[in-house]
Amino acid sequence: LLDSLAESFRLEPESSDPGGADCFAEHRKRLGERLVVRHPLQPFSRRYFSGTEARLCSFAAEYCLAAQAREAGVRTRHAFLPAPLPAADFSPATISLPELSRYLQHPVRWFLENRLGLFLQEKSRELQDREPIHLDTLEKYQLNRDLLAMKGEGLSRPEPLLARWRGEGRVPLGQGAQAVFAEIRETVRPIVEQLLAHETGEPLPPLRREIALSPEITLHGELGNRYPSGHLYWTNSLLHGRILLPVWLEHLFLSAVAPEDQRCETIVIGRGSGKGTAQVLRFSPVPEAARVLLDLSRLFIEGLNAPMPFFPKSGLVFARTMGSGKGTEEEKRIAAFAKAKEEYLGSDFAPGEGDDPYCRQLFGEALPVTPGYALYREGKSLAFAELATRIFTPLLGRMEEL
Questions:
Q1: Which strand (E) or helix (H) includes residue 334?
Q2: Distance between CA atoms of 265 and 229, rounded to whole angstroms?
Q3: How far apart are CA 358 and CA 308, in angstroms?
Q4: What are the Cα distances from residue 285, in Å, to 38, 66, 104, 228, 291?
Q5: What is the pLDDT of residues 159-218, one digit of tens each?
Q6: Strands ordered across the beta sheet of 226-227
Q7: Which residues are within 8 A (CB) of 23 and not within 5 positions of it... i.e. 6 or more apart?
Q8: Sign of the CA dihedral 137, 138, 144, 148?
Q9: What is the mean pLDDT of residues 55-67?
């Protein structure tokens, strides 16, 4: 288009004849400078608002503010939730045990989904279009879980189980499946051995009860995996805070009800930190179980208006370090915050709780597990250290390793 215009029009005071290729190129350049407006790539460029270029202007106030902030070198992130929500009408409160468990496992996610209706979906796993050769950590975990659910029935005769897994496309074909099963068996076998050792007596029917914790709060729930010797829970995961917290709630429920047909103890079996090992924990009876459940239920009600900066894995590490008894109170506090931060951030090999999309949405680049962090500038809100101590100290006081 510019070539056609250059052939058809002349700029004053040019001569009527460009007189050669060099003159035509110069004429085309001058015409382009007159007609062509080169816009910046960003609508918040300072060139739109500086007034130095007559043909560049903008009336967008938000872009003007962005240009000013960029010129000043200021980068601010607006708070996602600048203030608590209006108080929710939750009296009298009837809370279910599973709902309380889901809340304490991830208070931030529960708040964003149930109070704001914000669902941050994880990326869906890609469907494989060829046979599996190398299994990732999640795929091995799922196979471990399925084998553990059978309580070791497939350990001695793996052929039927491997045939099913091959048909589902979950393990490699040929001898590769045997190598995968050998690795899985090494993880599951010690857990199954501990499970069979503690699974004594005939299983009891589920326990359903409703507990009046206060005139305003009622808790109802159902407890399974009951035996005369106590409550039994097993998993192929490491026994970190997010695993132990729901089991602790069930144990509190058991202690508060105190049925006559079983002991008020809970055995927790999980994967050990060493290769081919299992970890076994025991929760002893809690005489003040109703009071502890009431305190946790009040945290749930308080969390309806504002998200709690509580993270089970980081919280358990913090509470354990504070209760270790090594060093002065200030030294323990510094060490506890350092370990909580390490757990929250994760590593190159294991993502931390801070990598969760709900935490990133609410906290951004801030670290809520550091001293002095407050979600809101005005008003009193519970801090991470206070929540971790308040929730996990009673748990640690009743837990022992067998």
A1: helix 329-345
A2: 7
A3: 12
A4: 76, 60, 21, 14, 14
A5: 777 777 777 777 777 677 777 777 777 888 888 888 888 888 888 999 999 999 999 899
A6: 226-227, 230-238, 266-271, 278-283, 399-401
A7: none
A8: positive
A9: 85
User: Tokens 């970890």 belong to which residue?
Assistant: 279
Pair 206, 161: CB distance under 8 Å:
no
**Per residue, what are the HEC states of 121-163?**
CCCCCCCCCCCCCCCCHHHHHHHHHHHHHCCCCCCCCCHHHHH
Residues 331-349: tens digit of each pLDDT? 889 999 999 999 999 887 7
CA angle 288, 299, 226 (to 5 degrees): 50
User: What distance in Å separates the CA atoms of residue 339 and residue 176, rounded to the nearest whole number?
Assistant: 39
225, 233 Cβ separation under 8 angstroms:
yes
pLDDT in tens, 85-142: 887 776 667 899 999 999 999 999 999 999 989 888 765 556 555 566 667 677 777 7
What's the rounded Cα separation, in Å, for the pair 263 and 78? 53
Task: State which amino acid sits at residue 365.
Answer: E
